[in-house]
């Protein structure tokens, strides 16, 4: 990880570079920043810069053997500790280091939720256990392999249990020669005060809207308007911005699916309905649930539009264009049934209903609901 890859934080980068160039590297540093500010990639870029054998004045070279290993997080003098869900198979970070490397390299602005989601352990407690501290002491007692420094990165040290945290106090105060601790913390209040007092604080500020918007345009080719909206909602948190970008991409697909379903249900084109249900059934259960949630949202927006509450409608330009045309079909005489059928579909999907049967049934129901006439449209013979 190079400094040039990290969004914003120019003042922090300059401070870290200066500490290396002036040979004033503190042995224990606390990178304190809220989620999505880039504290972890900053710590990694700092470690890579320290170990680089061909560094420039402002960054690591990215091409020397040391940098190549850092970029893959396989450098023998770089050690990691991070929270895990303790069980009989996984007691220390090393037991899951391959999975952690993959998750981090996929998204350096990783969150604890991202990490546990990748392990399918969202409902488990995140812990850095007692056995971890013994492993840290063992690793740091060894001599370096290739670099001048042994570097120990501890991500979310506030998740250490009290025993593990207390065991680290002595080595933090009197570390072996050429040993560097980089603690990356999101909640200082949950960290032992005795640990905080033994580290040099590096406070990472939230990103600005402009920095996030620029990064989104560069990385995802978002329009300037979408990037600005996303950056504003993210509130300085690039991890949140990434989630919002996912929502934009998902919503585009969901809108296309909703348009196709409604068009075919209105005409009751049974051949196209079968094709549509086959297509959405291949997408996976979470994607199907996401579509139903989106359908509920768009149905509500259509109802608001149809009832003259356009100021309450919150949609993208493409969604708004569709809703203005389609809202006439969603009114007070069918919105309740629309909502009920979609909620029932969501309920049954969570209980592993067959998606082809479920969406085919939903299409039949929608055909009836979309053709429900308003009372003043009923013809009297």
By oligomeric state, this entry counts as single chain
Quantity of strands, as a count: 5
- How much strand content do the residues show? 5-15%
Distance between the termini: 76 Å
Strand order of the largest sheet: 2-3-4-1-5
Structural class: alpha/beta
Please give a quick description of this structure.
The protein is α/β, with parallel strands linked by helices and 381 residues long. Helix content is 54%, strand content 7%. The chain contains 16 helices and five strands.
Would you mind describing this structure in some detail?
This protein has 381 residues and is α/β, with parallel strands linked by helices. 54% of the residues lie in helices and 7% in strands. It has 16 helices and 5 strands. Strands 2-3-4-1-5 form a 5-stranded parallel sheet, with helices on both faces. Helix 7 (162-173) links the parallel strand 3 and strand 4.
Quickly list its features.
elongated; 381 residues; alpha/beta; 7% strand; 5-stranded parallel beta sheet
């Amino acid at each position: 990880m190079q400094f040039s890859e990290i969004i914003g934080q120019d003042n922090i980068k300059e401070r870290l570079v200066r500490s290396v160039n002036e040979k004033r590297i503190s042995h224990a540093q606390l990178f304190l920043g809220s989620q999505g500010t880039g504290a972890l990639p900053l710590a990694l870029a700092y470690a890579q810069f320290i170990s680089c054998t061909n560094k420039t004045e402002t960054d690591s070279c990215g091409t020397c053997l040391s940098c190549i290993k850092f970029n893959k997080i396989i450098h023998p003098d770089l050690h990691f500790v991070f929270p895990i869900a303790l069980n009989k198979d996984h007691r220390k970070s090393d037991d899951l280091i391959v999975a952690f490397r993959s998750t981090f390299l996929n998204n350096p602005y990783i969150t604890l939720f991202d990490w546990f989601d990748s392990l399918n352990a969202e409902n488990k407690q995140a812990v850095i256990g007692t056995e971890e501290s013994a492993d840290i002491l063992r690793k740091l007692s060894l001599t370096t392999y290739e670099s001048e420094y042994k570097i120990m990165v501890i991500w979310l040290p506030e998740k250490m249990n009290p025993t593990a945290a207390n065991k680290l106090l002595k080595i933090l105060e009197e570390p072996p020669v050429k040993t560097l601790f980089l603690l990356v913390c999101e909640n200082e209040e949950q960290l032992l005060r005795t640990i905080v007092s033994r580290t040099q604080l590096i406070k990472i500020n939230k990103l600005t809207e402009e920095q996030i918007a620029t990064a989104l345009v560069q990385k995802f080719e978002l329009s300037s308007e979408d990037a600005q909206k996303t950056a504003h909602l993210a509130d300085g948190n690039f991890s949140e911005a990434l989630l919002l970008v996912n929502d934009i991409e998902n919503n585009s697909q969901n809108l296309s699916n909703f348009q196709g379903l409604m068009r075919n249900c209105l005409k009751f084109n049974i051949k196209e309905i079968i094709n549509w249900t086959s297509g959405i059934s291949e997408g996976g259960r979470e994607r199907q649930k996401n579509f139903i949630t989106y359908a509920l949202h768009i149905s509500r927006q259509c109802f608001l539009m149809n009832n003259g509450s356009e100021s309450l409608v919150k949609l993208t330009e493409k969604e708004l264009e569709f809703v203005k045309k389609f809202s006439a079909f969603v009114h007070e005489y069918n919105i309740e049934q629309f909502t009920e059928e979609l909620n029932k579909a969501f309920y049954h999907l969570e209980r592993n209903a067959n998606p082809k049967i479920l969406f085919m049934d939903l299409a039949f129901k929608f055909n009836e609901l979309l053709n429900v006439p308003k009372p003043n449209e009923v013809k009297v013979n």
